Amino acid sequence: MDGYEHPDAFDDPRISAPFYRYCPGDGGDVLLLGVVHDHPASVGRVETVLDRLEPTTLALELPAAAIPLYRAYATRLDDRDHPTAGGEMSAAIAATDATVAGIDAPSWSFLRRLVTRLVADRAPLSTARRVLSSVGGATRTALACRLAATLSDPASGCAGVTDAVEYDVSHADTPTRQAEHERSHVSGVTALLRATDSGPKRYRDETREACMIDRLDALRDDGDVVAVVGVDHLDVLADALTS
Description:
It comes from Halovivax asiaticus JCM 14624. This is TraB determinant protein. It is a single chain. The chain is of the alpha/beta class. It has one domain (16-181, 195-242). The two termini are 19 Å apart. The chain contains nine helices and five strands; from the N terminus they run E-E-H-E-H-H-E-H-H-H-H-H-E-H. The model has no long low-confidence stretch (mean pLDDT 88). The chain has a five-stranded mixed sheet with strand order 1-2-5-3-4, sandwiched between helices.
C-alpha cells in the first residue's frame, strides 16, 4: 500500500482521517476504513479506495457465515453500478478481486473468549444472561444470512436483517455533501451511544474487538489488508494494530 498512508492521496472529502487509519506491520499493512451502515459516503469511501488499492485480503465486519450472502448481493447492481442490497459491505466485495474474510462474531473463538471473561470477572448472572441472549440473536441472524445466500432472491430470505437504512442524502449528492452529512450523523449517534452504554454491551463489543484484532493480525501475515469496519471500532483496532 505504498503511497497510500495518508487519505489526502485520494483527494476525496469522504476519505479523511476520522474514517481512515493506516496500520503498518512487519508483514502486510492494514488499512482500516470506518463506515456507517448503508451511508452513501461510506459506500463511496470503500469503492474509491478499493478502486485504487489491490490488497491481498478484504476483511469485513461480518461473521464468516454471512459472507456468501453479501457476495450474492455484490453481483446485483443498479444503474449506478452500486449493489442493490448490502450497503458498503457488498459494495466493497464488488470493488475488488481480493480474498474476502469475515472477521466479526459469532465465532468459536469469540464464544470461548466471552465465556472465559464472564467467568473470570464473576459477572452477575443477569449480565451473563443478557450477553449470551444477544449472542444467540446474532448467531441466528448469521445462520439466516447463510441460508438466504442459497435462494434465488437472497434479499427475500433475510428480510428485516439486511434492510437498507435511509438517510437524507443519496449517491446522487456530491461527495462533499455526503461527507458533511455522514460527519453530522456520526456525531449524533456517538453521543447517543455514550448515554446508553451498558455492561452487557461492553462485554460483547470489547470481546468482538479483541477477536477482530487477532484475526486482522493473522490476515496481515499473508499480505496487505483493507478492513471495512464500523467507525466506532476504529480507535481500538488502530491502536492495537500499530502498537
